[in-house]
Amino acid sequence: MVTPECAPVAQAGGVGDVVFGLSRELELRGNAVEIILPRYDCLRTDQIWGLTLDYRDLWVPWYGGAVHCSVWFGLVHGRKCFFIEAHSRERFFNRPSIYGFADDALRFCFFSKAALEYMLKAGKRPQVIHCHDWPTGLVPVLLFEIYKFHGMADQRSCYTIHNFRHQGLVGAEVLRASGLNRPEYYLAPDRMRDNLHSGALNLMKGGIVYANFVTTVSRHHAWEVMNTEQGFGLGPTLYAHRRKFGGVRNGVDYAVWNPEVDALIPYRYGANDLAGKYRDKEALRERLGLRRGFKPLVAYVGRLDEQKGPRLIRDALRYSLANGAQFVLLGPASDREAERDFGPLAQEFRHHPDCRVVLAFDRELAHLVYAGADLIVVPSNYEPCGLVQMIAMRYGTVPVVRAVGGLVETVFDRDYSDEPPERRNGYVFGQPDASGLQSAMRRALGLWNSYPGEFRSLLLNAMRCDYSFAQPARDYLNIYEYIRHK
Question: Quick one: pLDDT at residue 182?
């Protein structure tokens, strides 16, 4: 795995959870898996065991010279991880966060080059190199155009796109820096030229064109990105490469997200005994200073940006409070617009007895929110797969979601789904507007208030869903076998 994120040591979103969980499942099935990451300043080193220097002097070709790097090895909850430390004037990874810098594209192009150079020099010859999202889009390009001629001709690449909105647009200087050169060659429309900006290179497009197989994180989203604006300009490229493109639904790591074994919640519980869930609800109220009472508790967990439907998140909060429910929002404001929208909201409800807005990425608190909430809202404008709804269901927290992406494949409406009653596990609305959201919430809150026995049956349906990595791992192993023999 070549990736910018891996939970819990380096994480800005769901990519880290998927890399860790999929790697664990692949290992359980008898495969050797190694994960290559940058050694960020913001690494959670308390989650790394036995951090030792693995390769002291790795010289990575860059701009006609070479950058000195060191590679560290450590175990992250059993996963074998290698961390590339760059001793460069640019301080590529010596930053306070993973993303958010003007030179992000150049930083991760260097990481892609360094990862392949490390494999080459350290004698690592994995059968498959699995890359994740735009920061590693250059890996399949470099593998095919350079490294296959230097001893890595048998390696195959699988490229997983978790989010099409961020694609990594760069100028031709990346070609000179990485040794690819020949800008006229790579700026061809069937290679790396961006489909919307003719003078720019697109790292994600490069990954799509050059990888042996390309996946996104649900079957429905694979259709969406090829046939709607959710491909953010890459639809024609995906269509051209449709024979090597497909959707593989993400999974949830039930060794981490599971109320029966979760060490981060005060009271553990399962489908056969829900007493711990109700006690966790009181623990959540106590921690956040919410009043007790016979009220449903609605939650939102996740980052706050345009993808997640911020207008509908705010509407869900106010609708909940206006209809006798409590509301907890937990997530970072990922841009200035979100800060402007949600900062005043946090102040407005700072002392409200039934509402709390916590603008932070707090993994530990998230476990308690999943356990303590009755309902969780996921009103996304688009959602490639979504982990929140799958995690919530494992904790018996009923999802209210919009019918997009992977949400369509995992949540089946209690009242209107064609699935048999025992498979129905939440509430779904179609239109991205307040009336659609409120209609679904009205049904959900009505069931909680008026038919508690049926609400309990619904949450038990949700808890019994299997959204582990078992099926995704089988799908990926089939893909790996397919490309190995191409």
Answer: 96
- Domain identity same for 308 and 369: yes
Query: Beta 326-330 vs 297-301: how paired, if at all?
Result: parallel
Low-confidence stretches of the chain (pLDDT beneath 70):
none
Are both 305 and 221 inside the same structural domain?
no
In terms of domains, do 220 and 280 share one?
Answer: no
Q: What is the rounded distance in angstroms from the CA atom of residue 365 to the CA atom of residue 386? A: 19
CB 277 within 8 A of CB 395: yes
CA 102-108-111 angle, 5° bins:
145
Handedness of CA 38, 39, 41, 47 (dihedral sign): positive
Same domain assignment for residues 349 and 380 = yes
The CB-side HSE value for 48 (13 A sphere, CA atoms) comes to 20
Instruction: Answer yes or no: do 354 and 377 share one domain.
Output: yes
Beta bridge partners of 393: none
- Residue 181: which domain range? 14-251+470-484
Opening angle at CA 216, ends 210 and 222, nearest 5: 105
Task: Enumerate the H helices of 163-234 as residue ranges.
Answer: 173-178, 183-186, 203-210, 219-227
Query: How is residue 312 written in tokens?
Result: 């509908």
Q: Which of 54, 96, 80 is nearest to 1 (CA)?
A: 80
Do 235 and 382 share a domain, yes or no?
no
